Predict the 3D structure of the following.
Amino acid sequence: MRRRLRLGMVGGGQGAFIGAVHRIAARLDDRYELVAGAFSSDAARARASAAELHVAPDRAYATWQEMAAQESARPDGVEVVAIVTPNHLHAGPAIAFLEAGIHVICDKPLCHTMEAAEAVARAAAASSARLALTHNYTGYPLVRQARAMVAQGALGKVRVVQVEYAQDWLTEALEETGQKQAAWRTDPARSGAAGSVGDIGTHAFNLAEFVTGLRVESLAAQLTAFVPGRRLDDNAQMLLRFAGGAQGMLWCSQVAPGNENALRLRIFGEAGGLEWAQEQPNLLLHTPFGEPPRMIRRGGAGASAEAAQATRIPSGHPEGYLEAFAQIYRDFADQIAAAPAGQPGVARSAPVPGIEDGLRGMRFIAAAVASSRLGATWVPLG
Amino acid sequence: MRRRLRLGMVGGGQGAFIGAVHRIAARLDDRYELVAGAFSSDAARARASAAELHVAPDRAYATWQEMAAQESARPDGVEVVAIVTPNHLHAGPAIAFLEAGIHVICDKPLCHTMEAAEAVARAAAASSARLALTHNYTGYPLVRQARAMVAQGALGKVRVVQVEYAQDWLTEALEETGQKQAAWRTDPARSGAAGSVGDIGTHAFNLAEFVTGLRVESLAAQLTAFVPGRRLDDNAQMLLRFAGGAQGMLWCSQVAPGNENALRLRIFGEAGGLEWAQEQPNLLLHTPFGEPPRMIRRGGAGASAEAAQATRIPSGHPEGYLEAFAQIYRDFADQIAAAPAGQPGVARSAPVPGIEDGLRGMRFIAAAVASSRLGATWVPLG
Amino acid sequence: MRRRLRLGMVGGGQGAFIGAVHRIAARLDDRYELVAGAFSSDAARARASAAELHVAPDRAYATWQEMAAQESARPDGVEVVAIVTPNHLHAGPAIAFLEAGIHVICDKPLCHTMEAAEAVARAAAASSARLALTHNYTGYPLVRQARAMVAQGALGKVRVVQVEYAQDWLTEALEETGQKQAAWRTDPARSGAAGSVGDIGTHAFNLAEFVTGLRVESLAAQLTAFVPGRRLDDNAQMLLRFAGGAQGMLWCSQVAPGNENALRLRIFGEAGGLEWAQEQPNLLLHTPFGEPPRMIRRGGAGASAEAAQATRIPSGHPEGYLEAFAQIYRDFADQIAAAPAGQPGVARSAPVPGIEDGLRGMRFIAAAVASSRLGATWVPLG
Amino acid sequence: MRRRLRLGMVGGGQGAFIGAVHRIAARLDDRYELVAGAFSSDAARARASAAELHVAPDRAYATWQEMAAQESARPDGVEVVAIVTPNHLHAGPAIAFLEAGIHVICDKPLCHTMEAAEAVARAAAASSARLALTHNYTGYPLVRQARAMVAQGALGKVRVVQVEYAQDWLTEALEETGQKQAAWRTDPARSGAAGSVGDIGTHAFNLAEFVTGLRVESLAAQLTAFVPGRRLDDNAQMLLRFAGGAQGMLWCSQVAPGNENALRLRIFGEAGGLEWAQEQPNLLLHTPFGEPPRMIRRGGAGASAEAAQATRIPSGHPEGYLEAFAQIYRDFADQIAAAPAGQPGVARSAPVPGIEDGLRGMRFIAAAVASSRLGATWVPLG
């Protein structure tokens, strides 16, 4: 019997979006039990949120500092903490909990500045605890399969990588209406130097590197804030050069009407291609050169062991975003169970995005911003 | 704060499919806590399952009879029980728990015979407790919206209803390999008089009635067992006549290669049409006559309050089968909270399939089987 | 060098729809030259049409009788005549031209009554000339390929055949506005005993038999005229039984909002399935059981010789309705070239629908109408 | 009655691809009659081709020089000539026929060098005859409609333009097998300085400018020849800056397995978006911000006058590549009829790509090649 891990949460009080997602993800496979939280900087909201979430009043903390101090002192203290605050509030609690030997699940991007990211990395390196970063799209079964297929040579050498992530919710100046999500995501103080690039471009970048196994070496990026008055980019277009010679493009936009969450990856190699789109995640199109395209469906014929490991229900019963998100939680629980903190060498059965992915994402943001400021010239990726 | 309901389960031990689905559904919205179970008729499997599911050993029962007796005697006994056994084992526990005043969530179809179904109906009528039937496809947000749109006249008077549910997993004689799911579903003793018609035809039938708000008055059905040696139908085609003059067709098949879980409903009225398919559940196609078709997406522009009520995450993040299933659980919890057992007159904010739907489904099965035996002549629906 | 055949036309004057289609079809592959016509019963319109079509004034006839008499007497008279009038005006000219030894291309359905159809059949049997019926959907490359795949056993024994043809243009009482196409198609005197069944149901029926190579033995049909005041069916739903045990359904409708010309065929056998839809005719979905579905594209990998024979341009450049229609013309020209009239035994390289298909279509209409009048009971197909 | 224009052809003999397409396009609407040709530099092939095409032996010329001389001297000489040779053989005949006062329809790109293009432009400016360039994708009805919608402000100010054209036929070194199409397209001497960029990138570029009405001001391009030994690019990725501030990307590839002719344009503005894909050309997706996406279908509800002008048959009967190609021919015939050569000021009812588009395309090629040689830095578009 697998014991449930004791989970705490920083952020995610009433009115938040991603906190609720993390909680469902934690609950879905019954591997975590939420027992503590610093849900909000607003004390009343923090208390009310805790009550609603069945968290005992004495473990509903006013601040993450207090939570870190008290929980690490309890024999039944939290074993894992989920950080679901805006970007500028990731590093502080992440470092504190890592230093306390408590595992961290951090929302992406890792931080709002490169400096903060490196501080987290140092804390992680020094800690017996682990850090998982919720690049949740890597939790989709067919994304896992695509990665395995590329690694096994199904496409031959990769030549072309086209990735995009389009949304439309910031087509107008939503941040001026007081909408909370829009407000912090367009605010440099809370979001960092990038808008769409940090919010969704990092997902696209991560997905491309995750699936191809290739590293972006340099990029040329044009970042634009199309909406008058907006302080951070709401659209970005980039050329990418990968180690080994593959060439790519990345487009992310939050001002593309008709697009909701249109993350889409296409990879083409000497021997074939792959295509996957987040809004139809149960389908992977495989196009071996010279043969009819094949529709690989999650759980169906042609689905691999990597996909099966991340699947809960039979083919034809669509799984979605929450299941993929939950996969990160489940795999992290497996990692923790298989490899107690402090034994990082233990083999992992499934890939969980971690500190390295977080640093890559931060370098990507930095390079994109720098390139754009230089007129979209080529900039290496640190 | 909403208290979690104490949940028990009959069936669903190790190796079962639908039991795990029910458990995730119960857990997803944190409205239930699994505390007891009679998970298997095999005692060792029952115990092992309980341990795996964090159920205390003293509440892991060998039989549902024992569970009903003991749980109804405990002050902290289960408030709701989920029945996830094969069809022939629905009626017994359903009646027992209803008689004990414990709410029942029963997998569909309601039973394996009309007589058993009527006995359950009598028990439900006499009980202070409620029964929910997991016609889970009614839990999809856009199915709810489609129902509301029809009711509000968006299509005008309905003329044509085309519904189908195609699978392929029984294309060959899987039951002869010992596969558990195939074995009981093709066995008249455990499944009842129908195969594909009971297993998936009932879902199609329920969906058509649920969304249109119309009742099938009569049908002509040809049921076929295409696989040599198979004892129950694996394919059925039907003409339908609805009260009020609409005409329909229903096709269900488990021998249609390439189809996984292809439940699809199309409705056409004087003023427009609607189309929804389970494998792409986040899209509802609305075709007002004389205008370009509109793609209504869950959570997006054009999504209604009915859809929003059944939605957890923003548009573009796909939801799927588990969320829809969970919706039945969530709405049932709301019903129980809003209208304590014994006060059936309290308004329901969302439709939860219940005993009436169960009886309709059983009548549908009976009519289809009777029609087919008479050479696919017309038979009224009781 | 292939000589162009001298072509005449009956009907198809200014304002007609299908006449223009026939002319483009004749012209596309440069195998015909339009040299004569009785384009309209209105003399002025007939003359004007001829002038517009580059037909010499002395070969613009007032009636088809006159045209048959004079053209058969000319040494350079027409070799082939296309009949593109409403249904009730097919038999007369068809018989006259066949008796004159002139090949006939007749629009479908063959006639408006069974008696007329049989008279045409007798004339065809007695004539040295041939008759082609423009069941134009059989001209699509991937329909040809589907037929070949079934014949070659790619699906194993066929079990299930689902065919449908949905339109929406008669959702309202268009015939009351004076619209010419609607007027004759809803008029029993000009269309025959069936409306949608004759107009589009025959196409669906023909396609199902053409591709499967199976014959419908009996059917149960409910025909409905949903629009108040309409004299012929605008919607029909049918159960089908094929020789050899396959079971099918056919739905045709002209009152299904959102559907333009949605002819779609699905076939399922012991070993796999096929799906083709007229509105995306360059794709054939092949679903071998137990393998990922394969997207066969016209001209692409997996396309067969039968498809290639009916293809003009490389894959990815979409072909459509006109090319498929032209294929009937091209194949008929090949037949005439390869097998001079009077030598019917010569092998055909491609299937051209002819008198037998015409008679099958008429029997289908008769059986559907008879079944519906008897309350949708089973009726054999003559 | 519209007289047929007398048409000649340069190139397009037996074995060629695009010549046959031009001939069908010319024939489809019956506005041209092929009467002369210099079909091949191989005399025997030229004669055989002429015979096959019903061209009189005395008008089957050995060279285009001879053809220009003799046809311009005949009273019944060709009025229009189609040039369908490889790129390096466009300028010579184009200039000769323009100087002879004969209209020219030239395949794209206009030439193989900028110098040659400018020479053609001078000839066109000095001539009483017109030049049309077969940027055939502009002939699709819904491309015309998209252009009109943008011009009428349906999207508001355009912000983002994403265009791509992917193929896979050069994934391997097809040119080494002697395949004729591959051979000249990968040969700098015959194709010019660019491979995929000239062959298909120009189409993508033209489409983007045609529909948006915006001009690309500068670009940064990385051109790659992925196949070992290939002398011209087979893949290119570009960032685009448009006058007025719109930002774009262009991807063209001939090494993207699974793609046949995947030309796709997406445009996003302040108020909405549009999406069109060549392989499903009968659909235009319109996404007004804040409303459900609308599927505009050729000929259906929401189709505009611009689309109708380029449509032959009713909605639901798919039109394709040949019809769009024919549209250029038809519109050019209308132009010639409405505005005799020498009266260029006469209004045009439909846009026909001409010399300006040809020059734009050549500048695009030059800029892309230059940018790539400079390491994908920004280069203005002449």
About this structure: Chain C has a mean pLDDT of 95. Chain C is about 35% helix and 20% strand. The first strand of chain C starts at residue 5 and ends at 10. The two ends of chain C are 45 Å apart (CA to CA).
